[in-house]
Design a protein that fits this description.
two-stranded antiparallel ribbon, 13 helices, binds zinc ion, binds nicotinamide-adenine-dinucleotide, 2 domains, Rossmann fold, homodimer
């Protein structure tokens, strides 16, 4: 782990991707000195800021002030919040704003918001003039620990999520830990599922630390910054090994095969289930399924369940309000997501806490049986 | 030069870009055996073909037959011909076709057409699932010697040409030299301006060869294939040295600063001026301007003029039908294109035939004076 502490309470995670290397700064009140961080690290003269209504009302003025104080010309576009914003018309609007403002290759598009804004603005930054600088200022926990790191950008299509996009690494990530104070409890918890995921993938010590310290992570302060930094480091490690997702990066999908199926089965209705909640249930199921295949102990599955329950996340399919999806619907969603090849699918399984692995030959029939039993309970 | 001859009359230019390396095959009737070339070189099971009406009527069936014979499932989209097709709605339509057909990362989008179709389809291939395979089957001379090589893709915006796009190298280029037989004489000549350009940049022997053999190039047969292969090799050499255009790749803009200004001044009205014609005039002007700055001899400028005139290309601003643009309009266009920095602009100048170089400090006032004199003649 190479998380380093710079100025008071500020952590830096370096992502060593050659000529696309960048730093992630993590600390309180970073938005207020974004201008200084950006101008001292990148030669940006102009910035086109993309944000959503919820975030703009809290942080846009502060960001603009800081940039202008440091001599950066700014324009901004505030979009409606929500997943629907990850589509073609908003993308065209962002590109048009950037081009109207004559953003050049060395100028920047800045994403100020959650993963929706980050994915959209990053895609625009990847295609305007075939690539301009990109600065992420993630404001949700999920975007601070997951979507702002790794360079995946994109929008949704009527055929599915994230089907159009580019790999475009940011030039700088500023994770303002105090901005999370205005995030809803539910969104914070959903993001926390991804934090716990890093422990479960390959950092048993981190998972243990979370079991002890999660209340401090929720409360804010150094424990929160520490959890975010370790999460970023975990994701960065995987991304550096496998930037374009051909192998190991698949580990990041722990809990996501079941999770995506649940999201699809609830029609992406966020009043019933948000992504991180699906992942929480999915991680518990992945551990139980591994135990059922005699790969891991049932005690580990119970430990995962206990921790996620403690923080207030759902851990059972039956925790989802409304009618339960039948097994067939879930299996269809899994087959869609994973392209079943001659009855086999790729799944992230585990030998225990922090011992996940990519299994390429899981029998679809085994998954189906497991889901039937789970739903029958 | 490493142009190699494979089967009868087929030339291969290899573009060594590491894990993005690819081959350009050049020869007669390649469309008819495209299926074999594609399946033997890439593991493509499905292909989404993008083309335009002019090209589809001549070659689409032939391509589809060849692919299906070799077991490749195909879908296709035929768009209106012309520069307007390089815009957002057609891009969305191409992406949607590919996603509807469930094109996966190892499947391909195929561009069958000129530079418009290549730029559009290549952009789609760069963003569908964050990148799928891309096969270029360029059918205009310009696209065979220029736009199909190098990985620049894109569409236009209301703010200017090619402002949105990605770098996405093709996996294979099939340049069918017989397909050029159906190209209009005028489009062929326009593409030829770019062929001559490679000689003028840094291959004096090639320019001399063209002076002797241009009639055979226009007639078809081995001389045409040879000229295309050397052109591709020339462009590939520059691209390999400078994939993302930070330095040497600028040499490819020989004749283009004046050319673009003339295109802009004639409102991109192709009945008056097409791109290659603007480049032809621009190359003559670049050589005259270099002579005027005592960098090259006037004899060289005359030689360039004589050759381009011989093949039937325009060589004077006054060759453009309709009213002549005043100097100010041209200077404005040049300033727009090149971002004049404190009165200086970057220009491709020359010490003589095949001795072009990038000049970073050309005084805008010198260019203006030269243009005034040129227009006054
Ligand atoms: N690119 C990647 O690698 C990657 C990885 C994971 C997820 N994602 C994407 O991220 C998106 C989900 O991200 P998300 O959960 O951040 O969603 P989001 O951007 O929709 O944010 C969630 C909600 O919180 C609000 N919000 C954000 N920050 C706030 C703050 N500080 N105060 C008050 N409200 C705030 C937003 O307005 C929104 O209503 C999905 O589209 C997903 O596909 C991308
Ligand atoms: N990506 C790059 O590096 C690059 C480089 C140079 C130019 N370009 C782009 O290329 C485009 C110009 O390319 P172009 O000149 O091929 O234009 P184009 O694609 O419009 O083709 C010119 C015309 O010829 C027709 N045509 C093409 N092949 C034919 C054939 N075999 N038989 C009959 N008709 C045929 C087309 O339908 C069209 O009407 C511009 O948009 C330019 O920006 C891109
Ligand atoms: Zn996730
Ligand atoms: Zn050109």
């Amino acid at each position: 782990m190479t998380v380093t502490l710079s100025r008071e309470n500020e952590r830096v995670v370096h992502v060593p991707l050659g000529d696309r290397a960048y730093d992630i700064l993590i600390g309180p009140d970073l938005i207020s000195h974004a201008g200084g961080e950006i101008t001292s690290r990148l030669k940006v003269r102009k910035a086109a800021i993309v944000t959503d209504e919820n975030v703009a009302s809290q942080y846009l003025d502060r960001l603009v002030d800081s940039l202008q104080t440091d001599g950066v010309e700014t324009v901004s576009l505030t979009l409606p919040p929500g997943e629907k914003t990850k589509s073609l018309e908003p993308l065209a609007a962002v590109c048009d704003m950037a081009l109207s403002a004559r953003i050049e290759r060395n100028d920047a598009i800045i994403a100020l918001g959650g993963g929706v804004i980050g994915d959209l603005a990053g895609f625009a930054a990847g295609i305007v003039r075939r690539g301009v600088r990109f600065v992420q200022i993630p404001t949700s926990l999920l975007s601070q620990v997951d979507s702002s790191v790794g360079g995946k950008t994109g929008i949704n299509s009527r055929h599915g999520k994230n089907l159009l996009g580019v790999f475009h690494q940011p030039d700088l990530v500023l994770s303002d830990t105090s901005a999370l104070d205005s995030l809803s409890e539910r969104e914070f918890r959903a993001g926390y599922a991804e934090v716990a995921k890093y422990g479960l993938i390959d950092r048993p010590d981190f998972f243990e630390w979370l079991e002890k310290n999660w209340r401090d992570v929720f409360a804010g302060g150094p424990a929160r910054a520490e959890a975010i930094a370790i999460s970023c480091q975990s994701k960065a490690d995987v991304v550096v090994e496998d930037e374009r997702e051909t192998g190991r990066r698949a580990l990041l999908n722990l809990g996501h095969t079941f999770g995506h199926a649940l999201e699809a089965a609830t029609q992406y209705d966020s009043s019933r289930l948000v992504h991180g909640e699906g992942v929480a249930i999915g991680m518990v199921l992945a551990h139980r399924f591994s135990a059922r295949l005699n790969l891991a102990s049932t005690d580990d599955a119970k430990r995962v369940e206990a921790h996620l329950k403690a923080v207030g996340l759902p851990t059972e399919i039956s925790d989802i309000p409304g009618e339960l999806p039948p097994t067939e619907v879930l299996m269809d969603a899994i087959a869609q997501d994973k392209k079943v090849k001659s009855g086999k699918l790729t799944f992230i399984l585990t030998h225990g806490i922090g011992q996940s692995f990519v299994a390429n030959d899981v029998a679809a029939s085994e998954v189906e049986l497991f889901l039937k039993e789970t739903l029958a309970r």
